[in-house]
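Input (structure):
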């Protein structure tokens, strides 16, 4: 799957959900003004922007060069590094909190990534992560359309953290205790079907990869099925995520 895409395209694909999710997620973890926070898998900066807006100090890391370039241009005064969650290039006990929004399900080794987040966080600090729920997350309507045509198509429901209790299991496997998990949801209004559909053609993530693999007829058929399911708009997508938090 690819995240080596223009940040503007990623923002149109996922930022429309990630930005409102950031506020709900940070509120659930309990991060606010004055906290020194690491944004793990920062992307173009949806969570970083929210954390800065509430007065937190933020460092950020992501493996995607276009995203790193974009967030450095957007926030030139913060520490932004290229790297992965599994090998965080930060000293131990540096941060008050380490957060991973919509990242755990793409980690090569989620337990190692969460363990690294705990390593760089001071004792008593907070670890938080959230992942879209498989059947009711932001991308669920797209995969519903896919499954109408191809019932056995692999969606994102089996990814790490995308079901009740799995983030808790991953946190506990990484050595964290007293893990709290809950669902959080955001409502996103799409004015037209075309505004909702077009970002799926940008080649972002598993959904974008699926569309890219289709021939012209296959894309047209999927678009037609999705239009029948979603309507011409406006319509609201209620996107549900699982979130977990624990103290180090």
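Output (sequence):
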């Amino acid at each position: 799957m690819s995240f080596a895409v223009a940040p503007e395209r990623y923002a149109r694909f996922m930022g429309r959900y990630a930005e409102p999710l950031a506020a709900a997620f940070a509120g659930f973890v309990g991060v606010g003004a004055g906290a020194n926070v690491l944004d793990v898998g920062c992307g173009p900066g949806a969570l970083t922007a929210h954390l800065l807006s509430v007065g937190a100090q933020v460092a950020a890391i992501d493996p995607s060069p276009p995203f790193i370039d974009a967030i450095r241009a957007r926030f030139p005064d913060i520490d932004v590094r290229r790297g992965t969650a599994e090998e965080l290039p930060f000293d131990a006990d540096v941060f008050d909190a380490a957060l991973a929004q919509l990242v755990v399900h793409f980690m090569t080794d989620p337990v190692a990534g969460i363990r690294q987040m705990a390593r760089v966080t001071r004792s008593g600090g907070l670890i938080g992560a959230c992942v879209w729920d498989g059947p009711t997350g932001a991308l669920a309507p797209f995969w519903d359309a896919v499954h109408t045509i191809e019932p056995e198509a692999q969606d994102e429901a089996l990814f790490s953290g995308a079901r009740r209790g799995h983030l808790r299991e991953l946190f506990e496997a990484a050595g964290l205790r007293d893990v709290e998990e809950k669902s959080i949801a955001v409502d996103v209004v799409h004015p037209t079907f075309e505004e909702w559909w077009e970002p799926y053609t940008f080649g972002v993530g598993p959904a974008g990869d699926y569309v890219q693999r289709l021939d012209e007829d296959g894309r047209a058929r999927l678009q037609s099925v999705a239009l029948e399911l979603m309507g011409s708009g406006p319509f609201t997508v209620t996107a549900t995520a699982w979130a977990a938090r624990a103290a180090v």
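Notes: The longest strand covers residues 235-247. The CA atoms of residues 33 and 126 lie 14 Å apart.
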